[in-house]
Amino acid sequence: MLRWLCRQDNKGVDLGIWKNIPPSILSCPLDVHSGNVARKLGLLTRKQNDGKALAELDSKLRELDPIDPVKYDFALFGLGVFEGF
C-alpha cells in the first residue's frame, strides 16, 4: 500500500499523495508471484518468502535503482500473475 501512496508516476498507478516518505526507503511487496519471478531472474536465492528474503530482494533492487527500488514491484508481480513466468 505504501508504494501507491508514496510513489508518483504519470500512468495513474501510484498516487504519490504522501510526500514525506521517500520511495528509496520502501520495500517491494514479497508474495508468491513476485518471489518466484525474482528467483527466476536471479534477484533472490532464498527459498522462503520471509524477512530474510525481503532483505535480499531489497538489496538487489537497490543495486538496480537506489532512489526508487520499488518501481520493479508491478513488473515482478505482473510477470508472475499474468504471464505465468
UniProtKB/TrEMBL annotation:
Superkingdom of origin organism: Bacteria
InterPro entries, sorted: CHP02757
Record-given protein name: TIGR02757 family protein
Source taxonomy: Bacteria, Pseudomonadati, Bacteroidota, Flavobacteriia, Flavobacteriales
